[in-house]
Fold this sequence. Notes:
- By secondary structure, the protein is an alpha/beta fold.
- It contains eight helices and five strands, in the order ααααβαβαβαββα.
- The chain has helices spanning 10-17, 21-29, 36-48, 55-62, 78-93, 107-119, 140-147, 170-182, and strands at 67-72, 97-102, 124-127, 151-154, 165-166.
Amino acid sequence: MSKANPNATIVDIARRARVTNITVSRAFNKPELVKPETRERIHAIAKELNYVPNAFAQGLKSSSSQIIGIVTSSMYNPFYSGLIKTVSRIARQQGYQIMLFDTDGSEEAEMRAIQALFGYKARGILLSAVRDDKRYRPAYLELAEVYGVPLILIDRDLYDQHLSGVFLDNREIGVLAGRYLAEQPEQKLLII
């Protein structure tokens, strides 16, 4: 038995299985096109070699990937941690993986994160932009349109861009919280 190779490729598997590279690729991507005994032999060799399909290469071939990007300005905000957990769970159920970036409030880090997701051919990007003032016009907005990658805004809107998003309404939340507190029988309240 040969030693496992962490850098095994479909070429290595094809050579060992005595089939073409295309047959190995089909065994993983379109298994119904490969004879069951050939498919089983390919999968056994792949397991022996610890072969893992290259998701980046698959994305290049198909012009997209199974990646959903999340770019947030702060991982410390409890809102984002709950959102990330929920999105991750739903994405996994649908066959997607998330790629997470924390920009720490840096415009430069935000641009690098978005560009990386374009490079990985992400299917979509959930974005909490570092700024939401009227003058903020990041260059990645035009690139998203060129690459056809949907941007969904989280918490902060980008002025006059007409992008889909999920936003908190602090004024409405304040009114609802005030009404709730006013209805409570307690006479003494501490608000922190």
